[in-house]
């Protein structure tokens, strides 16, 4: 926090010019900036400027009391302290002054050292008030900045959550469509009158479906992982291999190709050797 600059300006108000002159001389010798006035109206006008940190105020002034001047100053919310100077020896006036907001009071006559001490204490109080107000203002500023950042981050999070929610909804919709498509595809495969298969790069079955069980009496799981050559007769493998490789890697020049596959039992369309005839 930057160091606060204190002007340490003191206003001296007393209808006794000799008293104000002596106080002013004493305080100026201590390095304070002072101004002395002897009438209450001038005091009220100067106090209203807010320029003075401390007012040494005589309680009994012509036309106004020191309490009335304090009330006017307090109504303007001026940040200053008052030391009441009174010739009354009774404690009632001092107690009233403190209740009305005076920082301290002095009974006339007083020792110069005592006045300097009380002035120093009052100015320290002013500094503490200034520091507290500055710290409060800094804290409020920091709180405002933090609140602004929180609001900005909250807006970003809300926007991100909305975007993520939209993405999740879109993905769920796509997954539902995919599941529906897969279900439809599975239904088509399950109800196909043909054998539907897929081979990997090595020629092994990686998917078998359709009417494989009803046509050649193999369960699909029995064929998955096996090489396609395992279901054909050895004598047919050369032409079967040619046709499979041709259809998988090149232009499908072969339009129709029938081959017999040995079944576990003869089928109505079996040849004389008990093998079913299929078109690949």
Number of domains: 2
Mean pLDDT level: 83
CATH superfamily of the largest domain: Response regulator
The residue fraction in helices comes out at: 40-55%
The first-level CATH class name of the largest domain: Alpha Beta
**Strand/helix succession:** EHEHEEEHEHEHEEHHHEE
Provide the CATH topology of the largest domain.
Rossmann fold
State Rg: 53 Å
Distance between the termini: 88 Å
What oligomeric state do the depicted chains represent?
A: single chain
CATH architecture of the largest domain: 3-Layer(aba) Sandwich
Low-pLDDT stretches are 1-6, 266-270
Strand content: 15-25%
Largest sheet: 5 strands, parallel
* Number of helices in the DSSP assignment: 8
Q: Going across the major beta sheet, what is the strand order?
A: 2-1-3-6-7
Coarse shape: rod-shaped
User: How many beta-strand runs?
Assistant: 11
> Structural class, judged by helices and strands?
alpha/beta
